[in-house]
Prior knowledge:
- About 35% of the residues are buried.
- By secondary structure, this protein is α/β, with parallel strands linked by helices.
- It has helices at about 15-25, 30-35, 55-60, 110-120, 130-140, 150-160, 170-175, 180-185, 200-205, 215-220, 235-260, 265-275, 325, 335-360, and strands at about 45, 65-75, 80-90, 100-105, 125-130, 150, 305-310, 315.
Amino acid sequence: MSTTGSSPPFRFKSLSDTVAELEEETSGEIAKLLKSNSDGITNFIFCDKAEHLPAVIVGLKGSPTLFLDCEGSRLGIKTRRLSLISLGIPAPTPQKQCVYLIDTLALGTPELRPIFDLLESSDIQKVVFDGQMDQSALFHEHNVTIQSVVDLQLADIKSRRLRGEREGSPEQIGRLWPYLPRNKVASKASLYEKVHKLAGLGQALEEHEVELNEQQMERKSLFSDQQRWIEHPLSRLHLQYAANDINLISRLWGHFVDAGYIDGQLPEQSLRYIRMWNNAQPDDDDVYKRHALLPLAILDAVTSRTKECTVCQRLLPESSFSKTAWDKPKDRKCLVCRAIVIRVQRENQIQDAIEREGDYYDSDGSGF
């Protein structure tokens, strides 16, 4: 994968460099916005006007690497909306990083084309964390396919082996609890050796001991209600949250690069991962597409004969099924879909128990 071509070596842009560029090329208007949005934790430019987009391109130009994150209401889900594209470039320190926040609801697809060209460029590496739903939203809403991508969520999974965690080890199996019922996993542990629990961004930062300040972690926990990303105008807190996510992704990327976790196979694996839902966008209630387990045959290319999992409808090799499931002519579940079935069964049992308890509690209408 080429990231620099014949261009000169990339030099980090300091915040003062960025301000100087923007003042020179945009008559100072956007540079003033950047200065007003610098609070010691994040520095960002919010772009909701077409005339500001050239300044964004100025700020991003020349970098072989872009950090990318998207925000929206139930991002990537059918009938939902992409609200914000966040982009940043490597900086010498987090305090000197500038983040560009592009309001996709205020700008149309034609106006956003220069940004999409960056995302579709094979010469610019995009670094994401859990990019599946970002790609789903970009593709199904704007017909954009991200090229040349590294997904740090996959790098985290791969790093576990480098840190001594083997498939089938107590550490790998233990990660599945409490997401999956402990008794079910423990009784048939061999069926879960290839089932990996995905980590969220905050969890990955904590596990890899990436040093963050308290305010950064507080901002990460601000918005659990994704519907608020559709409400406009976006508040300053929304924008600080989005800029902070880019900062966190860049911190994790720097740590993974230093630790040697970014290998030559990761870009191809990342493309397989983020493009899983290009053919069909997930529904909001599709538990077999929207879960916290790594889909099978992402880290390993499929080279042997395959059969279709009748649940997720993916063509998978024999290693992705139990022996019994592989031999079935129908109702053939891969190991991940089998695990999700068990999770759903447990949740249904819990819900039934809660409803029965409620019926008993209110059986005479008095609440006692």
